[in-house]
Design a protein that fits this description.
binds zinc ion; 4-stranded antiparallel sheet
């Protein structure tokens, strides 16, 4: 179980916010340059088709990802569910290079544009095989944003029942997309249009951003969702969810302050180097890094830049390659290769009591027990406050050290697959 570690947004955010546009929640200071070598290696290894049998077998297969939305909104202000069909059509077009604005890609880049052969389908059954409309709903007035100075772990409250959110469906088997209010309760400001978690062991990314299975997925601010016109934000976030970095390679110095940033790269061979993310511009004269050989201008059309809906329309072949590689090797249970083989999640029953609780918590398994189970308790800051293996079908856990409040307990199989979740209250 990867711990969620505190990180801070240290950029000069007023510069960004003055633009009046919101981008994704990943900023340049999230990344460590030392991981660049891993990434280069992974890209190279992914080209050796005998490295991974499954990768080889699925090379030309369309990979379909089941998607479920989770809406959290005030009782009198419902989200328009009919937008989901439009959104699904749009992301499918973007990942298939069937988006109408692909004609805006400059001819110099046309040979690099890719159909990723990755598709998305809204679920029509829930985890237990019952009919589903493809979404879940919770009504409340909560806002789930955070201040830039707060830890990244504070971004995930919408994913916990105990914090007013909605627990995800099995994150190894579904792409969970939360739509909620990302305004910060402290300042009343909204700093991000959305954000995503990256696959565990995704190359180049700092391990602190590897997805914990309790929080894995994508979050959109409800204004991003409800003002859907052409929103390349979700396509961009899915890029992160499938392991892509920004085209800038995310140098630690941030967006604006260093000429040396041309030495950073996303390690994707067919995206030209850029000085930094290009923030809401489509000025095609920009060539921020002169490459000594085979120089190309900044690829403003790339979905992993910050150039916005009027400009972004393309993934490159190497980006598509890496997304498919991450999907097959790091999210192996997610893509549906044969829709009939998607197995129904077995009912799993465990009794957790007393609840509320003032110190001694019982975890009793009603069904078959095996010793590959563990539990983890999270607080509403997304912090893992207690975790342990479960060695006995009738276990007793001491939670006296936890302060009073709501927590979320999850039971995991093999340290990573969440098979049961429950909100608990510590008196
Ligand atoms: Zn991003």
């Amino acid at each position: 179980m990867a711990l969620i570690v505190f990180m801070f947004f240290v950029l000069t955010p007023t510069i960004l916010w003055s633009q009046g546009q919101l981008e994704c929640g990943f900023n340049n200071d999230f990344f460590s340059p030392s991981y660049s070598a891993w990434y280069q290696k992974a890209v190279l290894e992914s080209t050796k088709t005998n490295q991974n049998k499954r990768w080889t077998e699925t090379r030309d297969t369309v990979l379909t990802i089941p998607v479920v939305f989770h809406f959290i909104y005030p009782p009198n202000n419902p989200s328009d569910k009919s937008l989901m069909a439009k959104i699904m059509a749009e992301i499918n077009a973007d990942f298939s290079r069937l988006n109408s604005d692909t004609i805006n890609l400059r001819s110099i880049f046309k040979s690099r544009a890719a159909n990723s052969k990755i598709r998305f389908v809204l679920v029509d059954k829930d985890e237990k095989g019952q009919a589903s409309r493809g979404y879940t709903v919770r009504l409340n007035m909560l806002t789930f944003g955070k201040e830039p100075s707060q830890p990244f772990s504070a971004s995930h409250k919408m994913k916990f029942d105990s914090c007013g959110g909605i627990a995800p469906w099995n994150t190894k088997k579904y792409l969970n997309i939360w739509v909620c209010n990302l305004m910060s309760p402290q300042s009343g400001k909204t700093y991000y249009a959305g954000f995503a978690t990256v696959p565990k062991n995704a190359p180049h990314w700092s391990p602190i951003y590897y997805a914990d299975s309790l929080i894995d997925g994508i979050v959109l601010d409800n204004s991003t969702y409800s003002n859907w016109n052409r929103s390349s934000i979700l396509t961009h976030e899915i890029g992160h969810y499938l392991g892509l970095m920004h085209v800038s390679g995310d140098p630690p110095g941030g967006f604006f302050d260093s000429a040396s940033m041309c030495t950073y790269d996303d390690s994707i061979f067919d995206t030209p180097r850029v000085l930094h993310q290009n923030y809401y511009t489509c000025d095609k004269s920009i060539n921020s890094c002169i490459e000594p050989v085979n120089d190309f201008p900044d690829m403003l059309e790339n979905f992993m830049d910050y150039t916005g809906d009027n400009c972004r329309n393309t993934f490159t072949k190497q980006q598509a390659f890496l997304m498919r590689y991450c999907l097959i090797t790091l999210r192996p249970e997610l893509p549906i290769l044969d829709i009939k083989s998607k197995t129904k999640l077995a009912d799993f029953s465990v009794n957790i009591y007393p609840n509320p609780n003032n110190g001694i918590l019982h975890i009793d398994f009603k069904d078959s027990f095996s010793n590959n189970y563990s539990f983890v308790i999270y607080d509403c800051l997304g912090r893992n406050v207690l975790h342990s293996n479960i060695v006995n079908p009738n276990s007793v856990v001491n939670i006296e050290s936890l302060s009073s409040g709501l927590y979320e307990l999850a039971i995991l199989r093999e340290e990573s697959e969440v098979i049961f979740r429950k909100s608990i209250y510590k008196d």
